[in-house]
Amino acid sequence: MNITTAITGTAAAQTSATKREPTNALGQDAFLKILVTQMKHQDPMEPLKDTEFIGQMAQFTSLEQLTNLNKTMSQFVTNQSASSLADYAHLIGTSVKWQSETGSGEGIVKALSSKNGELLAELEGSDGKVPINSIIHIEKNASLSNEQETV
C-alpha cells in the first residue's frame, strides 16, 4: 500500500464522517445493535449472567415504552391544540355579533362548519359564513330558551 492511497482513503473517510450529523441520543435501534453485538462477542466460557441480560432487556423495554409514550403525548398535544366543531356547538341558537376586515353584522347561529381548517358559523337568514374568530359578542337568545323549557 502506498502513501497516497492511505492519505486519500483517510481524507475520504473524514469527508463521509463530517457529512453525517452526530446524534447524542441512544435510540431503540442503537440499543438493540449494542445488545446483539455484546451477545455475539461474549466469552463462551463466561456467558452473560442471567441477571445482567434481564436488566438489559428491561432497559430496552423501558426505552421502547418511553418512546411510544412520547409519540402518544405528542399526538395528544396536537389534537388538544386544534379546535373542533364540538368545541363551539354551544353557539348554535345563540345571537352573535361579528366584526372582520370586510364588514360586521349580527345574527343567530344556525350551524357550524369547517373549511380549510377554519371554523365558520352559519347565520340564520344569511347565506354567508362568519369565521368563529371574528365573533365579538355572544348572547343567549331569550326566545329560543323559552321555547325549550318544559312546564
Question: Distance N terminus to C terminus?
Answer: 102 Å
Overall mean pLDDT:
74
- CATH topology descriptor of the largest domain: SH3 type barrels
Number of domains: 2
Principal-axes geometry comes out as: rod-shaped
Helix content: 40-55%
InterPro entries: FlgD (IPR005648)
Pfam families: FlgD
Family: Belongs to the FlgD family.
Keywords: Bacterial flagellum biogenesis, Cell projection, Cilium, Flagellum
Describe this entry's structure for a reader.
The protein has 151 residues and is an alpha+beta fold. It has 2 domains: 26-81, no CATH class; 85-148, SH3 type barrels. It has 4 helices and 5 strands. It has helices at residues 3-19, 28-40, 50-81, 142-148; strands at residues 95-99, 104-115, 118-123, 129-131, 135-139. The protein has a 5-stranded antiparallel sheet, with no helix packed on it. α2 (28-40) packs antiparallel against α3 (50-81). It starts with a helix and ends with a helix. The model is unreliable at 1-18 (pLDDT under 50).
What are the defining features of this structure?
SH3 type barrels; cell projection; disordered N terminus; alpha+beta; FlgD; 2 domains; 5-stranded antiparallel β-sheet; bacterial flagellum biogenesis; 151 residues; Flagellar biosynthesis protein FlgD
